[in-house]
Amino acid sequence: MKKILAFVLLTASLCATTVMFKGEEVTLNSKGLNVGMQAPIFTAVDKDFMEVTVGGKSDKIQVIAFIPSFDSDVCKRETIVFNQKVSKMKNVNLMVISKDLPFALGRFFHDNKIKNIMTLSDYKDANNVLRYGATISSPIYLEGFFGRVVYVVDTNGEVTYKEVVQELSNEPNYENIIKAVNRLTH
User: Fold this and answer.
1) What are the residue numbers of the active site?
2) Are 79 and 111 in contact (CB under 8 A)?
3) Which CATH architecture group holds 15-185?
4) Where does 51-96 have alpha helices with state H?
5) How confident is the model over 7-32, as pLDDT tens digits?
6) For the chain, domain boundaries
7) What global pTM score does this model have?
8) What does the pLDDT look like over 144-165, one tens digit per residue?
9) How far is residue 31's CA from residue 54's CA, in Å, rounded to a whole number?
10) Which pairing describes strands 51-54 and 42-45: parallel, antiparallel, or unpaired?
11) 183 to 72, 152, 161, 180: CA distances (angstroms)
12) CA-wise closest residue to 151 among 125, 121, 184
């Protein structure tokens, strides 16, 4: 029995991604998608409980940003910065996704005058996000939240850029994300 448990733990650690949160190790459920892979389609909901399709083929480039919670200062800054930067970009859908309830998204959307991006919730079925490798599996007090992971997906549904932010209290590299989008639009 000990050998089986050791094998399961070893396999899980090889498939997982480790990041940090204020000096403590945090494990994401998997390595996620790699550049060149197809972005799986899933459905999340917006602030009005309307379903939105994420991933797969689209008429616009998709920037899919997973965050722990709109209620944290870093997530708030990230979403506001994305909102400002995307307003200058053409043919791009930027979706910031958390497990926060749509009520919280509505409040956040209104209070921060978000107009250029979609704030989405995957509160119904976070199993969707498991395929993207963005779900925190440990430590227990963060289990089920999302890590800070960003994907750029071209119109054919192919992942062209991936960033797993190594410290959850840091923002993603906006410059690299914008460069990845610009490569697809030029």
Assistant:
1) 75
2) no
3) 3-Layer(aba) Sandwich (3.40)
4) 73-86
5) 333 344 456 788 989 889 999 988 89
6) 15-185
7) 0.90
8) 899 999 999 999 999 999 999 9
9) 19
10) antiparallel
11) 31, 11, 10, 5
12) 184
